[in-house]
Fold each of these.
Amino acid sequence: MTKLLTAEQMRGIETAAIESGSVTGLELMERAGRGVVEAVFAEWPDLLQASHIAVVLCGPGNNGGDGFVVARLLKEWGWEVRVFLYGDPDSLPPDARANYKRWRELGEVTVRDIDPASLQDDDLAVPGCSLIVDGLFGTGLTRPFRGPFTAFAQARDLSDKKDVRVVAIDTPSGLCADSGRILDTAIRADMSVTFHAAKLGHYLDRGPSECGKIVLCDIGLKPGSESRPAVPPDEIVRLVERPAHAALAKRADHHKYSHGHALILSGVPGTGGAARLAARAALRIGAGLVSVVCEDAEVAEHAAQLTAIMIKRANGAAALAALLEDERLNALCLGPGLGVDRARDLVPVALGAGDPPSRGRARSASPPRRSVVLDADALTAFAEAPADLFAMLHERCVLTPHAGEFGRLFPDLAERLDATPTKGPAYSKVDATREAAARAGCTILFKGPDTVIAEPSGQASINAARYDRAAPWLATAGSGDVLAGFITGLLARGMSPMEAAETGAWLHVECARAFGPGLIAEDLPERIPEVLRDLEHAAPRRAR
Ligand SMILES: NC(=O)C1=CN([C@@H]2O[C@H](COP(=O)(O)OP(=O)(O)OC[C@H]3O[C@@H](n4cnc5c(N)ncnc54)[C@H](O)[C@@H]3O)[C@@H](O)[C@H]2O)[C@@H](O)CC1
Ligand SMILES: Nc1ncnc2c1ncn2[C@@H]1O[C@H](COP(=O)(O)OP(=O)(O)O)[C@@H](O)[C@H]1O
Ligand SMILES: [K+]
């Protein structure tokens, strides 16, 4: 499991380790600085060849302390190092001050005001500078800054080396470590070296664009003891990772009904493509049977296009309710191409809330807890009255909004997320998705290159299509319909909503990456066999 931490969680782990006596803050700072230098040489081995010139920008906290360590180690390596401190040396925290003093035994520090009244630009031209080290702010950033950014921009611009590299210590300064949002401005890095665990901000929002590349440096912090972990496990956000092959394999002694029967509800004639995409995805991911549900007038369109996928007729809500008396139909998908009017009629039935409220029938006493994925029109249909939808949702539901749909159901949360952040930690997509899941009472998958998945308990994860998992060709019409189909198929196969959402999202990105440029939505389900084979080959061999 790759855990992602908030700044507060990181501080808690560090404090617990120091209080336990297993390590000192000074030792942690030394390991952090050393880790940055090692990462620099590993990433840019040409810098090992000769001595170079570095500019190290240090801030008023421990991030600056790490910067002084880096300066010292580079100097010991034979480099020429120019150090700038933005802040008052006498106000540095103790460990940072100790490293400031150690550096002062080796070299000069140009001290600058952190909030300058005017531009301080006299001595930043460092001819021949090969490396800029950003040790201004890390997890302690609380407000926007300007002065050091101007200095950085000048250091970069004034370097006569066009290939000057920028390494950020922990986080690029200006980036909020909890949200990946930028407080006014940020120092874009080519590489960010972070400690113990990556932070949420490395994967959310603007984080991946500002961090360059993430390198994780082990500074020897042990996980908390089982009885009293420094951070409660439930509060830790996970990065969605490669699923176990066993979770997706089919057993030799099982039959098709062992893998569930998924129903995908479709819309009026001419709009059925989205439902067919979702259906194909559900079948490829391994649902035993998949049917598209449509009205009489739509049968011909679907019949012309579908083969292994079956067609079931249901003209209206009452007919759907009758169809759903068959409990083998264990997972439903509503939304892709459904149309908002039809969604308003059918969603209550799909959710086991009895006939549509307009008919005035009482809600059934114990509605079947069938798995239900609601996407697209099934979400937009409740834009005027989200609470009506939330009242019907249950724990086997998954909502898969993109940012626009999220804003329709949770306008207040979207507003907070869209507001320009003025202080750190800023409200994050994880915060918004967790709040949304608690309000809706079900699993929410909030789409994007930084897809966030959360369930009402607060468990949350990020499926990042960034860094070495970038999948920009997923930005294509219908790819969301395929994702809804993947999740529905996995629910039909018996996964929990959270596991289905995470696994579906991971496979979605993997299929896009397996296909590469030129991808359109139809291509995604067709990559599943290859992706599953790769998972099988990656799995440890076992007797089957
Ligand atoms: N937590 C840990 O376990 C470790 C932390 N280390 C380093 O320590 C960093 C965190 O140190 P700190 O908590 O001291 O935080 P920072 O060094 O990120 O900066 C915080 C300081 O800057 C001030 N500040 C924040 N935003 C400002 C702004 N816009 N303008 C002016 N001042 C501003 C704060 O009031 C505080 O004094 C990490 O990012 C990492 O680099 C490492 O030494 C290794 C171990
Ligand atoms: N730049 C991107 N990188 C990675 N994934 C992306 C990107 N843009 C969109 N996606 C993914 O593609 C899908 C698009 O879904 P959606 O917006 O609902 O599209 P549609 O309604 O056309 O099906 C989502 O899963 C989203 O996370
Ligand atoms: K930094």
Note: Confidence is low (pLDDT under 50) at residues 355-365.
Amino acid sequence: CEVLPTTQPGQICLRVDRFEVTLVDLPGAQRFRSAWRSHYSTAHGLLFVLDSSDLARMEEARKALSRILSHPDVSGKPLLLLANKQDVAAALLPCELIERLALERLVNENRSPCRIEPCAAAGPARSTLQGLRWLLRAAAERSSLLPATRSPTADPSPRTARGLCSRPTRDTPDNQDGVGKMGEHRAARRLLPKVRAPPATAGVGWAGGGCRCLLLIPSSPCPGGECKGSWEEEEEGEGEEEGPRAAKPGRGTGQTRRRG
Ligand SMILES: Nc1nc2c(ncn2[C@@H]2O[C@H](COP(=O)(O)OP(=O)(O)OP(=O)(O)O)[C@@H](O)[C@H]2O)c(=O)[nH]1
Ligand SMILES: [Mg+2]
């Protein structure tokens, strides 16, 4: 990706693949949060940077996320959740964050596809960039599905994308030893069309070899009754069309996703 000249403070312009992206960095402190919503309608996707090591404020983060995603100008837009500070020993893994933040419910209630990437600011940017690529593709996919009559602010050009970057907690300096739990994900593309379906339950997936990136995609209701959930495993790949195979939930090899 290429950093482009910035025209406004608090904004970063990037060229990523075929997209020109403006990232708007919004301060996360409580007193600034009421200003976030003035950016919602122009945003094509959200990037939420979470301090994964701040367990005491996880509930605050959950509420902040819930408020954002349930806003009418945000619901349905894709969310990239960066599980930051994975270098801190106490940091929660993405799969733990899904539980703590009740992300499955949020995804279903608001129809926003969500991807979680573990990262550390001092670590390699690779997983963050992969997450950003997913966010851009998801935003472009969504805009291509929107009716042509949508307002221009809610119906972005497929060649541009605008993201909000915010953080719900005031981070504190912490140990920077090593960078564990970093990850990557390669199978987002084939899951994206599920966004078209009316959601009732969420699909959760992660790439194998440890808890790495996770995807939550609103999925269709179970035909005929209560949903008990099932699991499928897929080979990791760059969006090939191979079919899913039965597997157990867990941190096994391959791309795993739970279906409602
Ligand atoms: N250990 C560790 N510390 C981090 C990481 N990311 C940020 N920090 C530290 O957390 C503190 C806050 O970081 P900022 O980038 O200023 O946080 P912010 O969310 O932008 O703050 P606001 O703009 O006020 O919302 C700084 O001391 C950073 O060095 C990380 O991945 N690991
Ligand atoms: Mg900041």
Note: The first strand starts at residue 2 and ends at 4.
Amino acid sequence: MSDGMSKATLPGLAQIRDEIDRLDADIQALISARARCAQQVALVKQAEDPEATVFYRPEREAQVLQKVMARNEGPLHPEEMARLFREIMSACLALEHPLRIAFLGPNGTFTQTAALKHFGHSVQTVPLNTIDEVFREVEAGAVNYGVVPVENTTEGIVTHTADSFLTSSARIIGEVELRIHHHLLVAEGTRVESISRIYSHQQSLAQCRKWLDAHFPKAERVAVSSNAEAARRIKGEWHSAAIAGETAADMYGLVKRHECIEDNPSNTTRFLIIGTESVSPSGEDKTSIVVTMKRNQAGALHDILAPFAARGINLTRIESRPSKNDIWTYVFFIDFEGHQDDPRVREVMSELDPVVSDVKVLGSYPRAVL
Ligand SMILES: O=C(O)C(=O)C[C@]1(C(=O)O)C=C[C@@H](O)C=C1
């Protein structure tokens, strides 16, 4: 016992369980009281803006989770405690207004896991076939928000997501990071010696390249549209395996033959939450912009970065992509710390204006808490 309680001073099992029952009743009453507060909040929000009531408030949710973690005294880990509150808030928000969240499907993808990590389990997740469709459904208002992958620590930027922002009116309203663990999955009864084909998404095959070279050098690697699709395919193929995550394994009733086979143990993917509203400052925010350079402009990158450096604003990502409009012109995707309403950020934006051909704010949003 870590707190020095010896066996002799421990209360009996029945007594401890009585105490747990009492605490559970208290916790339950408090959660119900909290849920009633959320119902009142919903009425206030509706009264303030009856035409376009915005129930989901990412900045407030981030603050609630930050407070939970800051005041946590153990023995539960701060992130574990925040995850519990994540679910309580998710249930409270569902009472106010149930959310529909589109994600890059099918069911069982890492993107769905990211969506549930961000919004909690009281939302309805809607699988869509492509990143384009997620953007379209969000813009059309057919769903409340969307979740798309944007970068991976091993494989870099998800170009399709980045390029979608060039033409879409959707805004970034949040981010979520997920540690990606890949497993080699087989159908019940498949013998490892008989595996001649391995299905997965192209990015996952790349993230497990060294492991595959070492363990299955002869197996054919087949890229499919998602890890969940790979898992679905091997259900009836006794000579095949799939590389996918925990959720897909559970969903399709597969056996994990080898666990955590990713080459980089800190393999992490960052996802963006997209919507149509702008988010108020939370105090711990990031802003994403896309800057179109002028053609053949000497020192262009320096001109873009100098205003940030002058104000000590930390850049968290900078990525260049070909602009879709003109050959040999480029756009820069830049993420930095701060909110677009911060005076320092406003100054940077007004300094950028004359030195670039275009600058578009994709959104300011709370830094990922979990
Ligand atoms: O504070 C609010 O605006 C609420 O609606 C309450 C609450 C919560 O449960 O704490 C629920 C949903 C919002 O996204 C943010 C917070």
Note: The pocket of prephenic acid is lined by residues 38, 41, 56-57, 60-61, 64, 89, 92-93, 96 (CB under 6 Å).
Amino acid sequence: MDVSPGGLLVERRDAEGAGKGLFATQSCPRSSTLFTIPAGAMINLRTLSPLYPAAGKLLLTANQMITLHLTLHMPREDGVSHDPGWGPYISTLPQDFESHPVTWAVRNHGGFASPTEEDLLSLLPPTILSALSGRVRLFMADWHAICQYTAAAPNIVSASSRTDLTSSDFRLENHNLLEDCLWAWLNVNTRCIYYQLDSATSAPENMTLCPILDFANHRPNNTHIVAVQPTSLFPPTPGSLGKGRHGLGGDYIFMSSSETPVHKDEELFLRYGSHSNRMLLVEYGFGNLWDEGECRDGKFGGEVDVQDMVEKLFAARGAVGRALKEVLETEGYWGDWTMHSQPVPAHPSYRLISALRLSQLAVDESEGEAFERALERWRAVLWGQEEQVSAENEQAWRDALLLMCERIAETATSGMAAVRERLPRERASGAGWTGWMLGNIERLWREEYEVAEAVASSVRGGVEF
Ligand SMILES: C[S@@+](CC[C@H](N)C(=O)[O-])C[C@H]1O[C@@H](n2cnc3c(N)ncnc32)[C@H](O)[C@@H]1O
């Protein structure tokens, strides 16, 4: 790898409120090559597959394989990983994920969360809690798969650079090793980037840990760093992945943006994606910063998830609600219902409007001619053939939306108050990350509050969505 001053234009430094970050060591023009990571320096399915072959019918996913490798070569007390392959890189990974909500949720699931972790969980909005439950399920499934795999291939564990591990340690109920595996899993989930190894672009194999780049922090607007996806002269053959024959996946080149030049000593950000703050907190353990009033005024793109509330609307209608839910599922409109502060005017998503229209359909029976006729009308609106189901239905769903906004604002007001009560004490103590995390949680509640208020104001103002 070229680490000469001309080949490596970045370095790792402390970044306030974000651990480490990537900084420019010199100024450079637009579209400069900042650094190049050789294919063999990255940890992914291609570089690891030779070390982790199938054990009978058991084959690890990319996520599980990288997690297992990091667990087997986790740095110990001296902070150094003795992995002969990627030891120096693994030694640069964060030492712990104490501030990550998934850590608290996994511990809580196992019954060993600390009082602080329980307290923080109790302060989170319900939408975050349900997203966290999903992450816990995924982690536990991966932990289960890793335990099964190591039981079937105990020699894999003998290759660990850790002297404290034997294959019998990989037991579901071994909390200490589960914690090591969680450290590894969170490294994978917070640091892996897209890297094409399979020709199907959405394949879960298309991910990698990538030294240096993984010190880049996120910002929501323009990215400083552009990843240039390596291509190969040799296209992959069908089913080649996992068998050591990869057409894709060469050296990874990272360039500066074509829009702005880079200034010496500036922090270089990578846009992780257009993620909501809810998703950022659950996946990465932080949220974007924004100032009070910015969501309300449409200057910041706030989002509220209303899954639980809409589900309740359908549940409250009994048999009719169940039949309507089936219709939404068949049409692919069940779930993923949100409200947004941007673009102005603040508005419900199209999916949410469609679900609300259906939830307010004026039908008393869950089948029959009247039911089918009403559905036909709803479908006509969905397909853009009609403007509305009826004037009554239009009024009913807007009323239901307004009521939802009022409830969200009410709950968010109590949520904010509970966090604000704790904030001064935590900030005054000045120690650790809890004050910083409470700030993140307070902003999440405030986002719910401001978006709900803004959407309510759109509804009251008669905005046509
Ligand atoms: C790919 S790593 C970036 C490097 C990381 N800051 C470190 O110290 O190793 C992603 C993690 O960095 C942190 N991070 C990234 N962007 C951030 C931001 N804008 N604000 C706060 N933390 C951020 C989060 O902890 C996230 O999970």
Note: The chain has two domains: 10-284, 303-460.
